[in-house]
Amino acid sequence: MKTGKLRVALLCDSPDEGWYSMDLVAAMLSGELRRNHRSTIEVNQIAFPIRRVFSGLSFSRGFGFSADRLVHRLAEYPLWLACHRSNFDLFHIIDHSYSQLAHCLPRKRTLVTCHDLDTFSCILSPQSHRRSGLFRAMSRHILNGLQRAARVVCDSSAVRQELIQRDLVPVQRTSVVSLGVHPSCSPLPNAVADDLAAELLPDRSPHAVYILHVGSTISRKRIDVLLSVFVRIREQFPDCRLIRVGGAFTPEQNNLLNNLGLAESVIVLPRLEPDVLAAVYRRASLALLTSDREGFGLPLIEAMACGTPVVASALPVLREVGGIAAEYCAVGDLDAWTKTVAYLLSECRHDQSAWSQRRERGIRRASEFTWTEYARRMAEIYFELVPASGE
After folding, report:
1. How far is CA 238 from each of CA 197, 262, 265, rounded to the nearest angstrom?
2. In sequence order, which residues have a C-beta less than 8 Å from that of residue 26 and are 6 or more positions away?
3. How many whole angstroms separate alpha carbon 217 and alpha carbon 219?
4. The dihedral of CA 292, 293, 299, 305: what is its sign?
5. Which CATH superfamily is domain 191-366 in?
6. Where do runs of H (alpha helix) occur along 219-326?
7. Distance CA 139, CA 161 (A)
8. I need a surface site. Which of 85, 134, 135, 195 has the fewest CB within 10 A?
9. What is the pLDDT of residue 57?
């Protein structure tokens, strides 16, 4: 090593993919390594824009981008790595859905972060996730890359356990390193960000009742459950509004929104800068995570870090992350969700002592998850792999 440091390549998603959580993991890990481990680690954060070749074709823009994305993932990115891999001592694939890159990397010096098993659903559960033969072959290629890595680091014990139970990766080649809370997530006010958040919301009263959902609109987020619970809550709390951060609803979700008569009661916001997102968390009375599958659940600890109580699906991974600081309901159980959310909103209005204790439990729980600790643990794993490096 020319510099005397471990030269680590952080292999990131293309920024064009739009996966906020993957971009966040890469940015926070890179920043913490440069801040606290610069004497021993040289960080190289690698991400390429997707080259637009087919995207401009008029016959199908959606198909064109998918084609460009496929070429980027399976050809251009691996080819670049194959030509430049001698410049690095260790390779960390940030997103398991990019595990195909492992095929062109030295096996003993490659590790992958596995956030969930959704990428492999069509292989692991073919009856419920039917896809074309070509898609299954691509997923198998990605899974084989994951299995080729010297170490697979999971965000949670729940994901690690699933990997092991399905006999996908030997237990001795797995680790668990929990994600962190962004430093912006705090119960303390931030005058500039709080003003910006207030401008985004129609009712600027600090006593406004807002229910918050943060994340994408992909099917596993169960937006149908979110909207169905919210329409019931509106019957008991007519002044309540729903804030959804993460971009527009799908056409099907918009249809449900309109059929439920909620169009005037729902505020849809795009992805927000971390400071402003934290301010929106602070404005909310309650945050909901209605997903039927998760790999970690960043919004859970982000909300709690800002002092906002959470109701989450009773998934093992969300129970693992939230502990006793969150409330849980069975996936899709509308009665249980409605009862729990209504109870908490009533507590917020009528029992400030209990509400303050609930908020404090969440803040304490969230404080256990830091990006500083995440980077420290990752650095330990990097140096565990270095002595065994080689082709």
Report:
1. 22, 11, 9
2. 10, 12, 13, 45, 47, 94
3. 6
4. positive
5. Glycogen Phosphorylase B; (3.40.50.2000)
6. 223-236, 251-259, 274-283, 298-305, 316-322
7. 20
8. 134
9. 64
The answer to whether 6-180+371-388 and 191-366 have equal CATH topology is yes
Size (the chain), residues = 391
Residue 228 CB partners (closer than 8 Å, separation 6+)? 260, 334
Note the pLDDT tens digit of each residue in 259-283: 999 999 999 999 999 999 999 999 9
Q: Give the confidence band of 391 by pLDDT, cuts at 50, 70, 90.
A: very low
CA contacts within 13 A on the Cβ side of 131 = 16
pLDDT band at 131 (very low <50, low <70, confident <90, very high): confident
Q: Which residues pair with residue 45 across a beta bridge?
A: 10
**6-180+371-388: CATH, from 3.40.50.80, 3.40.630.30, 3.10.450.50, 3.40.50.2000:** 3.40.50.2000
Tell me the C-alpha distance between 17 and 77, whole Å.
14
- The answer to whether the CB of 243 falls within 8 A of the CB of 279 is no
Residues near 298 by Cβ (< 8 Å), separated by ≥ 6? 21, 24, 179
What is the biggest distance separating any 2 CA atoms in the chain, rounded to whole angstroms? 67
Using CA atoms, how far apart are residues 341 and 215, in angstroms rounded to an integer? 19
Cα–Cα distance for residue pair 168/163, rounded to 1 Å: 5
Counting Cα atoms < 13 Å in the Cβ hemisphere of 170 gives 6
Q: Which is it for strands 327-329 and 310-313: parallel, antiparallel or unpaired? A: parallel
**243, amino acid identity:** I
Q: Where are the beta strands (DSSP E) in the chain?
A: 6-11, 41-46, 90-93, 110-114, 151-154, 174-176, 210-214, 241-245, 266-269, 286-289, 310-313, 327-329
Locus of tokens 């705090």:
186
Q: Write the DSSP assignment of 336-360 as a string of letters.
A: HHHHHHHHHHHHHHH-HHHHHHHHH
